[in-house]
Amino acid sequence: MIDEVRVGDLTWRYRELGTGPVVLLLHGWPTSSFLWRDAMKPIARANRVLAPDLPGFGGSSKPKDAGYSFRFFEEAMDGFLAAVDAERVSLAVHDLGGPIGVHWAIRNRERVDRLALLNTLLYARPSLAVLAFVAGIRLPGTRHLLTSRRGLDFTMRLGMHRKDRLTDEIREAVREPFTTGDARRALARTGHGLSPNGFVEIQRALPELTWPVRVVYGERDRILPDVARTMAKVKRDIPHAEVTALPDCGHFLQEDDPETVGGLLAEFFSPA
Q: Which of 75, 86, 174, 261 could join 22 via S-S bond, C-beta 3.0 to 4.6 A?
């Protein structure tokens, strides 16, 4: 089911399936809850699964002058979760949704039950690939290219290992929210709004986490090519984390193999 809720100045569009303990699925750049549409189904057999379009993405509000900072997303998430009556949650986070979700979680530790990390970034020293993206998204010419239809298509081609699964439906779902100049400007701002201080806070908190932690990542990631190194650091900092690397998946592993990703997460989030 796709629904909308108004929270202050923001409209959130979100997908919801199932009943039971709440599992919150957060996407990254430049996707939306559409990314989770298939992987969320097995999780929903025993849980209430919420997959929102984060502000700046999908069918949710895209305020062109927002800072898209850690504080902005923290306040927005608080409002959204209150509006949908979700006091306690488990989290699965991907790409930009990783730092956004984990930062919120470490500031709301008593509200979190479990954490799953997919291909994402969490540490204060970013990779060269991330530095190049952030620099590019700030420059007018490169920003225009990255947020254009052609640029969004390129991101999905780069991010999926299974090219046979990159359908016209997926391309259009990624392009459609960004048909206006204001929407593309908002998308660009989401790409450089998270401050280094927030990543420092996350990095310091990781060794303190006691929730069950599950890592599932695609090894063929050409968007975050250092993902194996990142997840090795996670395992070092959170020794009880269980890690699974999927050798035939890229960055958008929910598109490459939603059955396996959904099955692994369903097992992890099982309330039994």
A: 86
Phi, psi of 88 (to 5 degrees): -115, 140
**150: exposed, middle or buried (C-beta count within 10 Å: 0-12, 13-18, 19+)?**
exposed
The answer to whether the CB of 66 falls within 8 A of the CB of 60 is no
| Rounded (5°) CA angle 4-171-74 | 40
Q: Are 227 and 249 in contact (CB under 8 A)?
A: no
What is the tens place of the pLDDT at every residue in 89-133?
A: 999 999 999 999 999 999 999 999 999 999 999 999 989 999 999
Q: How far apart are CA 4 and CA 12, in angstroms?
A: 5
Structurally, how many domains does the chain consist of? 1
Cα–Cα distances in angstroms (integers) from residue 139 to residues 29, 67, 73, 147, in the given order: 17, 17, 24, 12
Closest CA to 154 of 112, 228, 142: 142
What CATH number is associated with residue 149? 3.40.50.1820
Distance of CA 257 to the CA centre of its chain: 16
Residue 100 is encoded by which pair of tokens? 């956004």
Cβ neighbours of 98 (radius 10 Å): 23
Percent of the chain with pLDDT over 70: 100
CB 271 within 8 A of CB 21: yes
Helix-strand-coil percent breakdown of the chain, rounded to 5?
45, 20, 35
Least Cα distance to 51 among 82, 23, 77 occurs for 23
Determine the longest span between alpha carbons in the chain, in angstroms: 52
Which tokens go with 153?
Answer: 């298509």
Range of 241's domain?
2-268
User: Count of CB atoms within 10 A of residue 76's CB?
Assistant: 25
pTM (predicted TM-score): 0.97
